[in-house]
Amino acid sequence: MAAAIFGDPDRINFVPLETDKRFDALRRGQIDVLWRNSSWTLSRDTSEGLNFVGINYYDGQGFLVRRSLRLNSATELNGARICVQSGSTTELNLADYFRAKSIKYTPVVVATEDEARGLYAREACDAFSSDISALAAARTTLDDPQNHVILPDVISKEPLGPVVREGDAQWDDIVRWTLNAVVLAEEYGVSSQNVDDKIKTAQNSEAVRLLGGDSGWGQAMGLDARWAYNAVKRVGNYGEIFDRNIGRHSPLNLDRGLNAQWNGAPPGLIYAPPAR
C-alpha cells in the first residue's frame, strides 16, 4: 500500500497491537488499516463500525502438539489442556468443536499469542490451538521444531484480510484495489522482475491498463497513474509476497494450498475482480 500510495514501500508505520485491542485501535484512528490475522465474520463486518475489504489469506484453525504424544487427530485430545488466545475467533471455535464432538478439554486462555507459545513451550498445556499459519510460525520459535507436529484437522474457516473504518469509500477502494492489483499481477504473469517488459509486450489488455498507468483508475482513487505498477515493481505480485513472507523463501515454508491462484495447478481460492 505504501508503494501504491507514495511510490515508496518504506513510508509506513507498523503499530503492534494485542488481539483484543486491534479493532478499537482502528475505530479510534490509532491505525488507518488493520493488516494481520483478522478473520472476516458477519458480526465484525456488520456491528463493529468496520469494513473488511478483501481476503489475502485463507486459513483455518488447527492444533500444534508434541510428536511424542503420538496423536493422529484432534479427536484424541480428550481431557487435554489446550492453550488458546482470548479476544479472537479461536476461543469460540475451540468450544464449538469440542462441544460438537462431546470431548472434554481444559482451555488455558491467555491474552497474547506470545503467552500461548510460552506456555506450550514449557509444557503448561498439551496442545496449542490457533490459525495454522500462526502454528507454523510458533513451531519455528521452539528449541526443537522437528519434535512438534500440526495435526491434520482443520476445524474452522478463517478468511483473513485487511480491515478499515466505515465511512471512507475512497480509502476502502485504495486498500481493496491495492490487494486486487498484486493478485491480478500474478494471474497475468507479471512480477517485480518483468513488469517493465510485460507492460510493453503483454497481449492482455487488462494488464496493460492496470500496470501501464493509462487507465485513469489511479486518479479516480486520488493516486498516481502508476499506483499499481509501483506496488508490483517495488514489492512484488501476490505470489512473490507470499513466498517471501510465509512461503518457500521464508522459515515457515508454507504451501500455497487454498491460497493458490484460481487458475493454478492445482487451483486455489485466490481471485480478484477484473481490471476493467
- For the terminal residues, how far apart are their CA atoms? 21 Å
Beta strands, count:
9
Topology pattern, helix = H, strand = E: HHHEEEEHEHEHEEEHHHHHH
Q: Give the fraction of residues assigned to helices.
A: 25-40%
Most strands sheet: 5 strands, mixed
- Rounded Rg: 20 Å
Integer average pLDDT: 93
Percent strand: 5-15%
Lateral strand order in the biggest sheet: 5-4-6-3-7
Continuous helix count? 12
Poorly predicted tracts of residues:
none
Helix/strand structural class: alpha/beta
**Structural domain count:** 2
Categorize the overall geometry. Answer: globular
InterPro entries: Bact_solute-bind_prot3, Solute-binding_3/MltF_N
Protein name: Amino acid ABC transporter substrate-binding protein
Family: Belongs to the bacterial solute-binding protein 3 family.
GO biological process, one term: amino acid transport
Structure description:
It is built from twelve helices and nine strands. It is an alpha/beta fold and 276 residues long. The chain has two domains: 2-55 and 163-259, no CATH class; 61-156, D-Maltodextrin-Binding Protein, domain 2 (3-Layer(aba) Sandwich). The strands form three sheets. It has a five-stranded mixed beta sheet with strand order 5-4-6-3-7, with helices on both faces. Strands 1-9 form a two-stranded antiparallel sheet. It has a two-stranded antiparallel ribbon with strand order 2-8. β4 (80-85), α4 (89-101) and β5 (105-110) form a beta-alpha-beta unit. The longest helix has 20 residues, at 169-188. 37% of the residues are buried. The mean pLDDT is 93.
